[in-house]
Amino acid sequence: MSYQFYIGIGIYVVSVVLLKYILKIKVKNLQTMAMWSMIAGIVFLCQPVSAWLFHYGIGVLGYGLLWWNIANNSKPDKVTE
Question: 78 lies in a domain?
Answer without folding.
Answer: no
